[in-house]
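Researcher: We plan to redesign the surface later, but first we want a full-length starting point. Tokens attached.
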């Protein structure tokens, strides 16, 4: 199993975890005394959710080339 395959499988976990952190941060940001902390958590949640795409975009993990199917 390559790192690319592992990243594809864990992509859903990153998306759900990032979504929960982002929603928690936005809920916390509604209170005026916790606004900065809430916004920071919302940005952190977005970065967590976008991590698989950002890793591929920055070229840290390259997809494995797939060969063509052999003729039958």
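Model: Full-length starting sequence:
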């Amino acid at each position: 199993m390559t790192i690319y395959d592992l990243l594809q499988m864990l992509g859903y976990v990153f998306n759900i975890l990032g979504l929960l952190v982002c929603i928690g941060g936005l809920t916390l940001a509604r209170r005026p005394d916790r606004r900065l902390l809430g916004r920071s958590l919302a940005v952190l949640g977005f970065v967590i959710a976008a991590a698989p795409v950002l890793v591929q975009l920055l070229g840290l993990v390259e997809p494995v080339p797939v060969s063509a199917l052999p003729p039958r």
